[in-house]
Specification:
about 220 residues; alpha+beta; 5-stranded antiparallel beta sheet; 4-stranded antiparallel beta sheet; 5 helices; globular; disordered C terminus
């Protein structure tokens, strides 16, 4: 069960393992291409109640599909918590994985990645291989975005996300472990944290915002 998994995670997690997420928040900063891979750059904060206004624990990056899957799992978890047991993720969620699709009558592979012109937006990119590693050479003038609307699954860039979102529940209807499980099972934050790579100088340069409000410092 979950307890076994959490114990395994703790064993392998190293010094930065976070078990309880109720005091943390994550801020998706931008979408950039790093080393040929589209990644989401994000910062993690303690004292989530400060709405990501304090200094972050650090700034990291994760490949777009992984961050998007974690975000979608969080959406689903929130809906189920609100009693919407029949909630289904938008059909566009399929683009969080490499998917075969006919574009203009030709078979391609597509997957969510960074938008070509807006780094605070995802787009569906076109690839020529079934692992979605090689951008399609047929993409016009260097633009590899497919014209597919994925507004229903956009990551909320530049918006502070609380790791644990408490819903009004009837204490008589939940078991003793409900509150602890909520603090532990925070899909967006825990998955992004477990897969993170530290955002180094090149990553920071690529994702740096034009204004000082972004909270960069020499430490992260």
């Amino acid at each position: 069960g979950n307890d076994d998994w959490n114990a395994i995670q703790a064993d392998y997690a190293g010094d930065d393992y976070i078990k309880y997420w109720d005091n943390h928040a994550v801020l998706p900063k931008s979408c950039v291409t790093l080393g040929g891979q589209d990644v989401v750059v994000f910062s993690v904060y303690e004292n989530g109640f400060k709405q990501c206004s304090n200094d972050p624990l650090g700034t990291y990056y994760v490949p777009v599909p992984y961050f998007l899957q974690a975000y979608l799992q969080q959406l689903q978890s929130n809906q189920i918590d609100m009693g919407n047991d029949d909630y289904e993720l938008p059909a566009e969620s399929a683009y969080s994985e490499c998917t075969n699709k006919a574009v203009g009558g030709v078979d391609y592979y597509v997957m969510a990645g960074c938008d070509d012109t807006d780094r605070h937006k995802l787009a569906v990119n076109i690839y020529s291989d079934n692992t979605c590693e090689t951008p399609s050479k047929d993409a016009v003038s260097g633009m590899d975005d497919a014209d597919i609307d994925i507004s229903d699954i956009q990551i909320p860039f530049q918006q502070c996300q609380q790791c644990v979102i408490w819903m009004d529940v009837n204490d008589d209807e939940v078991d003793d472990k409900y509150y602890e499980n909520k603090q532990i099972n925070a899909p967006l934050c825990s998955k992004a944290w477990s897969l993170k790579e530290k955002c180094g100088m090149k990553c920071k340069r690529l994702s740096k915002e034009s204004s000082a409000r972004d909270g960069w410092n020499g430490e992260d």
